Amino acid sequence: MDQSNVELQLKTLPESPGVYQYFDKNGKILYVGKAKNLKKRVTSYFTKNNDSHRIRVMVKKIHEIRHIVVSSETDALLLENNLIKKHQPRFNVMLKDDKTYPWICIKNERFPRVFPTRKLVKDGSEYYGPYTSFKTVNTLLDLIKGLYQLRTCNYDLSEEKIKNGKYKVCLEYHLGNCLGPCEAYESEKEYLKKIEAIRQIVKGNFKDSLQQFRKQMKEHAEKMEFEEAQKIKLKIDVLENYQAKSTVVNPKINNVDVFSIVSDEGYGYVNFLQMSHGAIIRSHTIEMKKKLGESDKELLELGITEIRQRFNSHTREIYVPFKVEMGEDIKVTVPKLGDKKQIVDLSTRNAKYFRQERFKQMKIVDPDRHVNRIMAQMKQDLRLQEEPRHIECFDNSNIQGTNPVAACVVFRDGKPSKRDYRKFNIKTVEGPNDFASMEEVVFRRYRRLLQEGESLPQLIIVDGGKGQLSSAVKALETLDLRGKIAIIGIAKRLEEIFYPGDSIPLYLDKKSETLKIIQQLRNEAHRFGITFHRNKRSSVALNTELENIPGIGEKTVVELLQNFRSLKRVKEASEESLATVIGKARAAIIYSHYHPKT
Question: By CB count within 10 A, which of 70, 101, 151, 310 is most buried?
């Protein structure tokens, strides 16, 4: 990837939390970093003058940028830690040692201890976290200690040893911090009830604890003990911002490969997340061209095989979004909920981001391929017989019934073709009538195209629901074009798409490119029509002889033309009929102007 391709990647980075990785021309990892906003952070390396010689040298060596999108800044922090420890990049200084973020451990033993640790030991103990700050860990442990008395000694409290009186209570018991299970002063059953409550707290279910803290804070404040109240407030803040779950590190998930796929008409995008001891250590996405319209299942199976060979992966289990056939040696898991489902969702999210970036890059470097893909997608989404390379959209503008006009905008290959836009004055319709106006302009537009031998569009879009669509279809029938041009109506309220003769509308995905292009057409037709309508209305109002009558302003002129439709009718109107529209005083002025007393 040359420097111009690095620039292309910078333009298409997502504005999401995540981790970025820089590689040199030999594919060797140079640096791993985290970001709240990937686009801003990565771009800053290339736009700012870096004071550090180390950073300047690194930027010169960057040949490729890769990134992994995660759901939060905390997850980005944890994932950065995993990747630095795994790959030991040359330009990273921090986090290269064997220290990791802290966990809270509930030890697998009789009368379990609860304590912080940086090491995960596979002995059946429960680990919660990791936490990005010891402050959070200490607050949680302080909370637990304040609510529940637990033992801190590391004795083996087996039933037999307690019965034989091997242990004696220590100072912690006399201070009230422990209830003395070592001398059987507390039963195992009662102790385990406390452990279950602690599990809920470290999982983030501490509504009751927060209420208790707020009560204590209020009591201290009432007693003017503001320092104590502030200490408790800090604890409340930490707990309210506490995130119990991390998607990128989970000790319950061992060594597995996670795969997902998103696809469109021509390509499939397969993402791979490699999990080692509960941590993501690699993310990679490949683009696969569809040759014979393969299904997502077939593409995913091919992608899994290719990626596992490329990275020499021999894990015995894979997580995927749906069932695939991978032979008897590999266990295929399709998670439905919980931690495993979250990790598959994260993989899908990264595949979607990769696809979006490829589209943006394609739009810049290969606009023809971009257009072809969108046209194929629109054909599929709207169930058309052919690609809508030429689309026309109609909109009526008749604000308060004055100067009814209509607009027709034209898109070619998904982009506005402004020289082909047309505007229409409504000629045959009296008063505001959207349906009849639509029929008139659609008829006039395509009668003219037929007469002049011009090419017809593959798709007509009508701004409005069933009524406007039916009127447009009538016009096509009159011209014997019904069935020869696809036509749809789009209703504003819920973005419903109607087809002729079908009472059930089609709903497109709100994020789909097809809907975005239809909305763009509709908005452009509305803008073009409104502009024409305003210009016409003001020119009619300002250029009429009514404006020249002393004491009559533009607003009065517009009201008269709205009601009487023409200057001739205003001249012929009686003083009484004028008064019903503009009041007696102004009616008398206009009537006397056109009917002077001799």
Answer: 70
